[in-house]
Amino acid sequence: MSLEELLSPYISAINAEMRTMVENAGESHRDLFGMLRYHLGWVDASFEQCDGRSGKRVRPVLCLLSSEGCGGNWQQALPAAAAVELLHNFSLIHDDVEDQDETRRGRSTVWSLWGEAQAINAGDTLFAVSQLALLCLGEKGMSASKVVEAARLFNETCIALTGGQHLDIEFESRDDVMVEDYLTMIEGKTAALVSSSCELGALIAGAPVAQREHLRAFGRHAGLAFQMLDDILGIWGDSRTTGKPVGADIVRRKKTLPLLHCLERSEELRALMLQDTLSETDVRRAKSMLEGTGSREYAEQLARRHHEAALNALERANLYDAAAEMLRELAHKLLNRRR
Predict the structure, then answer these.
(1) Is the distance from CB of 27 to CB of 81 less than 8 angstroms?
(2) Distance, CA of 203 to CA of 71 (rounded, Å)
(3) Which of 327, 330, 335, 336 is nearest to 225 (CA)?
(4) Does domain 3-334 match CATH 1.10.10.60?
């Protein structure tokens, strides 16, 4: 059986849990929750039902598999899995406003259809719904003290996530950003939610502290490797696969790992990045400089190291075989993707 087939019951249960949370919270606010449903891929811009793209559900799947791997009942962890995915989507709505991105998953973004102010409202609402979802752990038999512990971890993650986005935006107007600064930023923006998803699953299963820490480390390293691969694809990915123009991150002057590594070593690239506009020829020159300074190789090697560290942490977590194997396969799939 393929990994997709094995994960299908988990993803179906996550989607059903998310729908229940959103529908229960939004009965009296049709248009506001219509924007949420649109972003989540459930309705079109007229709020009519459709089958839009709705994301891979990676983070909530990690939560459920971590819980099962620690000997828990993965269905008990469904409120936390839904909360994680709703929180992730809150951050995407706000990211689109902050980055002025007009498309996501092949459709117009919320702010580009309904304006920035309403998109902020939609994101704030999704954040609140994620909190309500997490509190439903009590209805699955978790003690009040465990729910509070889960809520503390969840909200600490919210701060780390937003802090990472804050740094990402701040970097746009700074010319002194170093690779070390970038690593701090992605610890929050990308790795925090992935690592917390794994730890939440372990917490719900009643795992001992050491097992929780190993799963948190697995998620952290997997999240870092995932972001580094994203940076590589943003420059060298096939546009037919990624859906982005060739060298999109260079044109946006996005301070990704390969670009920062090269900027620390190339006066020529620093001068090029100061130009008002970048032509296709400029993008090709920049890519040549990145290759010449070994910046692509550096990013690929660092991503591989974090991938290996993730798998080592997973091994030390000593999970039940079936869940451990699915987590291992999922990590391989995510970190060897082409888009």
Answers:
(1) no
(2) 11
(3) 335
(4) no
